[in-house]
Structures are given as C-alpha cells and as structure tokens.
Amino acid sequence: MLVDQLKDIVGPSGWTSDASDLEPHLTEWRGTWHGKTLLMVSPESTEMVAAVVRACAKSGTAIVPQGGNTGLCGGAIPDESGKQVLLSLSRMNRIRSVSARDYSLCAEAGCTLASIQKAADDVGRFFPLSLAAEGSCQIGGNLSTNAGGINVLRYGTARAQALGLEVVLADGTIWNGLRTLRKDTAGYDLKQMFIGAEGTLGIITAASLRLYPAVRNPETVLFAVESPDAAVALLAALRVELSDQLQAFELIPARAVRFCLKHFPSSRFPLDQESPWFVLLETSRESTGDDFESMLMSLHESALITDAVIAKNRSEANDLWRLRHSISESQKREGASLKHDISIPVAEVGNFIRVAEAAVTRAVPGTRVVAFGHVGDGNIHFNLSQPKDGSAAEFLAQGQRLASLVYDVVDSFGGSISAEHGIGQAKREHLVRYRGETETGLMKAVKAALDPKNIMNPGKVI
Ligand SMILES: Cc1cc2nc3c(=O)[nH]c(=O)nc-3n(C[C@H](O)[C@H](O)[C@H](O)COP(=O)(O)OP(=O)(O)OC[C@H]3O[C@@H](n4cnc5c(N)ncnc54)[C@H](O)[C@@H]3O)c2cc1C
Questions:
Q1: Burial degree of 342 (CB within 10 A; 0-12, 13-18, 19+)
Q2: 204 lines ligand 1 (CB under 6 A)
Q3: Do residue 121 and residue 195 come from a single domain?
Q4: What is the CATH number of the domain that holds 395?
Q5: What is the DSSP pairing of strand 379-385 with strand 341-343?
Q6: pLDDT in the model for residue 242
C-alpha cells in the first residue's frame, strides 16, 4: 500500500497523519484555502524525495510540495479529496556550502530565507532577496514562486539569484544542475523552467545562489508625498542621482499606516500622518556625508516631497521597515481582505490606482483600498479591506467579481495579473483569460512534457 511504502521511505520521524500537526499545513496563511491529505511526508534528503516521487508516480498519486506555506495563492495547499500527498521540504534545511570568493552559496530547498541571508552575512556577503515572510518562507518556495520582495529594483527577483538547481523530476529522476557559473550557454537554460513553476513541473531540492558584496552604507529614508504620481516622479529623479544604488522604493498609503498603528500600537511612525502617501526608500551608497542631505533639500525645494526623515541608525531604520512589513498582518487583523498582486508599467502606477479604486468602490461601496508595495518595480499590492461595518462573508463573496474588475484595469494598462505571488489556485482561470491560448498552450505543452502523468501539484497554475 502506498501509505506504508511512503512511511518506510521517510522513516518514523518523516511523516504525520495527526490532525493537529497537519492543520497549519492544510490551511493557507489567510485561511482562504483549506485542504486534506493522504499523508504528509517530510523527507530529509534528495534521495528520499526521489523515492517518494517514484512511489507516487507508480501509483499515479498527486504530490503537493510545500515550503514555509506563506504563499498567498493556495499553491501549497492540497485539494479536498484527501488523496494527494503533501511533501514538506522543512527537514531539508542544510546550507551545503558557502564560498565568499566565488560569491555563491548552495542551500537545500527547506532553508528559510532568513537563514540564507545569515549564512551569506557570516562570510561578509549579501543575499538580497528579502520579504516580510523571510523568517518562515523557504528558498525552495521562493524559487518556485519567483518571489520578489523589497530589493528587486537593484538585484532582480529570485530568478536572478539562481545559478543552478537540483530538482527531482516527475518520474523520480534526480537532475543535478547545481552549477555556479555566471556564463553558460550549453543548450536550454533548464533551471528557468522550474523557477516560478509553483511545484507543477518538479520538486526543487537544492539551489546554488548568487551572493553580492555586503552593503556598506545603507541609508533609509521615509518621504511624505502627495500622490502615487509624485512617488513615481520622485523615483525617476532619484534614479538620476543614485543610479543602481537605489535598492528599495516602497509606496505606503496613509490608510496602511493607520492600520499598522492601530493593530501594532508599539510601532513608531516619525512623520505627520496627515500626508496621504509615503515612500520608504533604502540606498546602498558607496560614500556617506552631506551630499545626501543636500540632495534631499533640493527635492524638498522642487516640491516632489512634502516631508522626509532619514533614519539616524540601524535601529531607526528597522523600525521603519517593521512598519512596512506589518502592512499585510495589520490588514489581516482589520477584517476580511482581498489581495491583488499586480504589476504595470511604472509610469502608469498613479493612473492605475485611480481607475482601479474608482471601479472597486463603485462595485462595492465602502471597500477600503490599501494599494501599497514595490512601486519601483511597478508592483502594487492592490489589496481591498472589507467595508468598516459590513459583513466579512458578504465582502469575500464579491471576491471573483472584484478580481475581474481589477484585472481588467490591469490588462488595459498592459500589466500582469501576478507580479510576485504566482498563480496557484487563486488565479488559474484568470491566467487563461489574460494570457490567451498561444501562451497558455505553450505552458500546457511544457507541463505535458515534464509531467505526463499530471502528478506534480495538479490543479495549480494551468
Ligand atoms: C506577510 C507576507 C508578506 C509577503 N511578502 C512577499 C513579498 O514581498 N514578495 C513576494 O514575492 N512574496 C511575498 N509573500 C508571499 C510568499 O512569502 C512567497 O510567495 C514565498 O516565496 C513563498 O515561499 P514558501 O516557502 O512559503 O512557499 P509555499 O507557500 O510553501 O509554496 C508556494 C508554492 O511553491 C511550491 N513549492 C514550495 N516549495 C517547493 C519546492 N521545494 N519545490 C517545488 N515547489 C515548491 C508550492 O507547491 C506552492 O505552489 C508574502 C507572504 C506573507 C505571508
């Protein structure tokens, strides 16, 4: 029987069917999706993953890979059938090697993002991928969703950090592509197939990753601006001054600040909260000194900003980043919310927010728009909180309708319905609609070639 076979493969500490142990693995971070599983296995080596996959492939049993389960599209949650095997990568959490000289690191898929940042830091190097869930999300999940986060402006997404991968394929074969080469044009770049595939093509078991020089003089500044248009104009002006030393550029609406201060009363916010919008910026400049402050003075005079505060030390900077990272959690505590992780051309951010906000508040009066995020990448989390005194269930029931309205506006601006969170089960139907037959047809052909039995995370992405 498959269940007994899987238990034998992973050993007594490598599986669970206990309801309370399983519960956090079967529910999505916001509680939006819930599933059932035949068995959860937690292999501790690539060979064990391969043996699990071979056994499942033989019996035609579906496998759902799971990392930190912080994904927001339901990709890591099995369906309701109770017939799918949940495969957690959590026990594969070793850093296999770090080379300061090669500026590279090799980590198993279950390493948390924070542990990888630390391993790089320990040898005087920097791993730039950073997001609010970094204490729990895993590098395998980050690569499988092609995660973005706050430093994409300078360093690119998870895709740009991957030098090589080790993957267990859908028939249980292990592909070792753990090279650390900067240049390699020997045929198709196969690792790119698995990055952003959300576990539908294979299971990532390890990755070699690109490291960077440590950031020497980070500078964190909070600006008050009049509008998203002003934020975009500020970004354009700062890029002239700072070039690629501009590392993060985050848009924060006053409503998000209010939510954070309400639900995290110990938060510190050093600017007047009357401003409608704020921008949190981080630079990695080579030099320190007065030139930065004089640049800010000239920005003030040019009316691009209405106020600004520079963090005096790392502790003040951390306070500002904590606030930015609390937005999702505070919105969760504010009631039911609907998330739309989208991207559009940077110059259109202001127009997009105006048009989309008008559309959703017309459709469901009282909807509270919280549009925030990585504006430097044109990536807005166009999130909606339920009307203040309304019913959560009634608001959530409008989810598909509101999503279609938002995505139609995104499409009209030439944007993408998923910037960094992926498709999972949340946006599967929308993908077909907005990417069209040719593009989704190619995706289906790749899926059929790599997973002919459709056992790798079926029902997700396409
Ligand atoms: C508070 C908060 C803030 C967030 N901020 C950001 C942000 O700024 N930027 C951003 O990009 N995302 C953000 N996210 C979303 C989430 O953290 C990312 O999508 C993250 O990359 C998911 O990693 P995970 O390990 O939790 O993956 P999971 O949620 O476990 O899985 C995500 C998908 O990847 C698949 N998968 C997981 N591991 C593997 C593997 N080893 N091999 C194959 N497939 C696998 C799963 O099947 C699933 O389809 C945020 C989430 C939260 C809760």
A1: buried
A2: yes
A3: yes
A4: 3.30.70.2740
A5: antiparallel
A6: 87
pTM over 0.85: yes
User: 141 CB under 6 A from ligand 1?
Assistant: yes
Q: What separation in Å is there between the alpha carbon of 182 and the centre of ligand 1?
A: 26
Average confidence (pLDDT) over 119-127? 98
Which of the pair, 267 or 38, is modelled with greater confidence? 38
Pairing state between β 202-210 and 162-169? antiparallel
| Residue 268 confidence (pLDDT) | 85
- Nearest residue (by CA) to ligand 1, atom 18, is 71
Verify whether ligand 1 is closer than 6 Å to residue 89 (CB atom).
yes
377 in any annotated domain: yes
Does residue 28 fall inside a structural domain?
A: yes
Ligand 1 pocket mutation pick from 70, 73, 88 by most atoms within 8 angstroms of CB: 70
CA 401 / ligand 1 centre spacing (Å): 25
Q: Say whether pLDDT at 155 is over 90.
A: yes
**What digits encode the pLDDT tens for the residues 204-245?**
999 999 999 998 888 999 999 999 999 999 999 999 888 888
